[in-house]
Amino acid sequence: MAHAWQGVFPAVTTQFREDQSLDLDATGKHLEALIESGVTGLVMCGSLGENQALDAEEKRQVVEAAVKTSRGRVPVLSGVAETSDRAACRYIKDCEGLGVAGFMVMPAMAYKADPREAMTFFRTVGGSTKLPWMLYNNPVSYYVDITPAQLLELGEMKNLVAIKESAGDPRRITELRNAVGERFSIFVGVDDLLLEAAILGIDGWVAGTGIAFPRENQYLWELTRRGEWDRAREIYRWFSPLLRLDTHLKFVQYIKLCMQETGLGKEWVRAPRLPIVGEERERVLAVIREGIKRRPTIS
């Protein structure tokens, strides 16, 4: 089945100046590099985009700037990470007016919903728009797990077209396929499970660390599409220490530092996050610089 959303939809950082103000020009330059690499979509204002640290108006500015930068070349999705059904629906309506192509919807933040509450939330928020949307399942970080059986129930929502699966267990990919077949695009959301998930059968990758290495990231994805597994394993082994930066509590700081080292952005984050320092900084920089040193040649 050919899905509308497939391929690499990177989760994009929101670039700041050192004073923590928005740097939309820098964000736009990074988006151009990602589009040039061959990505097929962009996810703005997700977890990596520091959604929860942005003011309401800032989120809308970031989304609007991304839509203008894309100029229709790839679909622009906005993450929806509000604390209530009402706020999420209001945000969706505002983004519709800004020209987004769809949404990536997270469970309500700051509350651990039970299954009934979570299903009501997704039905309410997803049902508030006619645009397509992706359900972001990340029970590790957000403590709400939408199971394959629950996703099958949500299949009645025609505009729910994809799931970003970040449960951290590659077995979930097969469980999803067995439960829902080809009804949804399945995107892997854990960087260092990409190759395992690709072998099991996915449609896309919401990439994290790869935004600092867009050409290599896209190359790895395309190898999996062509079934060139020997070369894919080679690239994946080089990439794995870098991809694991996406699985840490400070993944935003780590990936932004990675972008700084590759010349695609700055490390500035919005408080309460702070740039990493001391031994932690040296350790992460060692991983990044070793990755840059051993960066593979791709044709």
Throw out a few tags for this protein.
eight-stranded parallel β-sheet; globular; single chain; alpha/beta; 299 residues; 12 helices
Major sheet summary line: 8 strands, parallel
Distance between the termini: 30 Å
Instruction: Quickly name the level 1 CATH class.
Output: Alpha Beta
Query: What percentage of residues falls in helices of 4 or more residues?
Result: 40-55%
If you compute it from the alpha carbons, what radius of gyration comes out, rounded to the nearest whole angstrom? 18 Å
Q: What is the CATH superfamily? A: Aldolase class I
Query: What is the global morphology?
Result: globular
What's the architecture in CATH terms?
A: Alpha-Beta Barrel
Structural class: alpha/beta
Which residues form runs of ≥5 with pLDDT under 50? none
- Rounded mean pLDDT is 97
The largest sheet has its strands arranged as 1-8-7-6-5-4-3-2
State the total count of DSSP E strands. Answer: 8
Strand content: 5-15%
| Pattern of helices and strands | EHEHEHEHEHHEHEHEHHHH
The CATH topology annotation reads as: TIM Barrel
Give a nutshell description of this structure.
By secondary structure, the chain is α/β, with parallel strands linked by helices. It has helices spanning 24-37, 56-70, 85-98, 115-126, 139-142, 148-154, 171-180, 194-200, 214-226, 229-243, 251-261, 278-293; strands at residues 7-8, 42-44, 76-80, 102-105, 133-137, 160-165, 185-188, 204-205. It is globular.
